[in-house]
Design brief:
Layout (H helix, E strand, L loop, with lengths): L4 E2 L10 H11 L11 H21 L6 E4 L2 H16 L5 E5 L4 H11 L4 E5 L9 H10 L4 E3 L13 H10 L4 E5 L11 H7 L3 E5 L10 E5 L25 H16 L1 H19 L5 E2 L10 E5 L5 H11 L1 E2 L15 H5 L4 H4 L3 E4 L6 H30 L1
Parallel strand pairs: 1-11, 3-4, 3-5, 5-6, 6-7
Antiparallel strand pairs: 2-8, 7-8, 9-10, 10-12
Helix pairs in contact: 1-8, 2-8, 3-4, 6-7, 9-13, 10-13
Length: about 400
C-alpha cells in the first residue's frame, strides 16, 4: 500500500539525504565524546564547532551565541525557566502571546507556582498579537520576561517581533525571547537585526528543516543571564550539561546550511503551491484562518462549517493524504485549538480546523489530486449527516 501524500511539514520534515550522509560517520567510526582530549574526542569537537558555525550563519548570529539542546521545547524552557531562576523567586511578570506553543504556555504556568505573574498577550482576529496588548502590559505590569513566537505553528501567521521588542526596550526593558522553530528555511531570520531591536533569545529546531529529531538550539545574547536546567559537566558553556548528541548536531548544522542556501527558491515555490491550494479551497466554502495577515509561505489552516476536523482528517488519511488538525505536540488534547479560540473563532468552526503544511517534496500534482479528494470527502460527510438527520426525524 503506498504511503499517503505528506502535507504535514510543520509537524516534522523528512531528513535530507545530505544530512544523513553527514551524520553517518558520527554514528559509526567517529563515535568519540566531544569532551575527550584524544583524537576521537577532538574530531567530535571539530564537527560540533563546524555545526555551530553553520547554524549561526543561517540566522545571522555568532557561533558563541548558539547553545545546542535536545529540542525546541527544551530551548523554550531553558529561556523561560533559566531566566526566571536568574531573577530569583517572585521575580516579577512574564508576558507571552495567547497563541504560543504549549511548551511555552505550560512553562509559564509553572512559573506562576513560583509567584511569577502571568500576562497573556491578546491577538486579533487574524492571529496577530495586538499593539494595544503590548502597550497595556508595559504600562501596567512591566514584565521582566517576554516570549512572542516569530510565526505560529498552526496558522503560519508571522508576528512583528522586532517592533514589539523595540517597544519593550524603549519603555523599561525586559528579556525578550521568540520561538522561531517554524521559521527557519521558510522566511529570512536575522538574529543580529532582531537583537539590535531588543530580542535576546531565539529558538530553532533541526527536524523542522529536514534535519534529525533530537537537536535544536537556543540562540542567546551573551548578556542574558540564564541558570541551566541541567547541571553537570559544563557542556554548552555551562548552560546545557550532558554528553552531546554529536551526530544529531552535525545533521542540524548541515540542515541549517541547506535551508539558508535554498530559502529564496523554496519560499517562492511554496507560496505558489499554497496559492493554488487556497484557490481551490475557497470555492468549497473553506474559512482560511489568518488569510489577511502575513503568513509563512507553506501553511494553510482552514475549516468547513458543520464538519468535524478529526473525522475529515481520518477520511483524508484513508484517501491517501496526511494532513493535520492542529499542532502535533498537542494532538491528544480533545479541546479546540487554543490559537483559534484566542482569535475569536467560534468553537464549532475551530473544531473543524485542518492544517496543510507544504514542504520541499510538495508539488502541483499533489495539490491537484488533493482538492477533488477533499471535495468528495466533504460531500460524503454531508450526505452522512443528512441521512442521520433523516433517521432521527423518522
Amino acid at each position: 500500500m503506498p504511503l499517503p501524500v505528506y502535507f504535514d511539514y510543520n509537524a516534522t520534515t523528512p531528513m535530507d539525504a545530505r544530512v544523513r550522509a553527514a551524520m553517518s560517520p558520527y554514528l559509526e567510526t567517529r563515535f568519540g565524546n566531544a569532551s575527550s582530549r584524544h583524537e576521537y574526542g577532538r574530531a567530535a569537537r571539530r564537527a560540533m564547532d563546524l555545526a555551530r558555525q553553520q547554524v549561526a550563519a543561517a540566522v545571522g548570529a555568532h557561533p558563541t551565541e548558539i547553545i545546542f539542546v535536545s529540542g525546541g521545547s527544551e530551548a523554550n524552557n531553558l529561556f523561560l525557566k533559566g531566566a526566571a531562576a536568574a531573577f530569583g523567586k517572585g521575580g516579577g511578570a512574564v508576558a507571552f502571546s495567547a497563541i504560543e506553543h504549549p511548551c511555552v504556555l505550560n512553562a509559564a504556568r509553572q512559573l506562576a507556582r513560583q509567584e511569577w505573574r502571568l500576562i497573556e498577550l491578546p491577538v486579533d482576529a487574524t492571529g496577530r498579537v495586538t499593539r494595544a496588548g503590548i502597550d497595556d502590559a508595559l504600562a501596567r505590569q512591566k514584565p521582566g520576561l517576554w516570549s512572542v513566537m516569530l510565526a505560529n505553528n498552526e496558522t503560519g501567521v508571522v508576528q512583528d517581533v522586532a517592533a514589539f521588542a523595540h517597544s519593550v526596550q524603549e519603555r523599561g526593558g525586559g528579556w525578550f525571547h521568540s520561538d522561531a522553530a517554524q521559521v527557519l528555511g521558510k522566511i529570512p531570520i536575522d538574529f543580529r537585526a532582531l537583537n539590535q531591536a531588543g530580542v535576546h533569545a531565539l529558538t530553532l529546531s533541526a527536524h523542522k528543516v529536514y534535519g534529525p529529531k533530537g537537536a535544536a538550539a537556543l540562540v542567546v545574547d551573551k548578556r542574558l543571564d540564564l541558570i541551566p536546567l541541567i547541571s553537570g559537566g559544563g557542556q554548552e558553556g555551562g548552560l546545557r550539561a550532558g554528553t552531546e548528541n554529536v551526530a544529531a548536531i552535525v545533521g542540524f548544522g548541515v540542515a541549517a546550511e541547506l535551508a539558508a542556501s535554498r530559502l529564496k527558491e523554496l519560499s517562492a515555490r511554496l507560496s505558489r503551491l499554497r496559492a493554488r491550494l487556497e484557490a481551490g479551497l475557497l470555492p468549497l466554502g473553506a474559512t482560511i484562518f489568518g488569510i489577511d495577515a502575513p503568513r509563512l509561505p507553506n501553511t494553510s489552516y482552514f475549516s468547513f462549517a458543520g464538519v468535524e476536523g478529526e473525522t475529515l482528517l481520518a477520511r483524508l488519511d484513508r484517501a491517501g493524504f496526511a494532513v493535520a488538525s492542529g499542532a502535533a505536540c498537542s494532538s491528544a488534547n480533545p479541546n479546540p485549538s487554543h490559537a483559534l479560540m484566542a482569535m475569536g473563532v467560534p468553537e464549532a468552526l475551530a473544531r473543524g480546523a485542518l492544517r496543510v503544511s507544504l514542504g520541499a517534496e510538495s508539488n502541483e500534482e499533489q495539490i491537484d489530486a488533493f482538492l477533488p479528494a477533499l471535495k468528495a470527502e466533504l460531500a460524503g460527510l454531508k450526505n452522512l449527516t443528512a441521512l442521520q438527520d433523516e433517521s432521527r426525524r423518522a
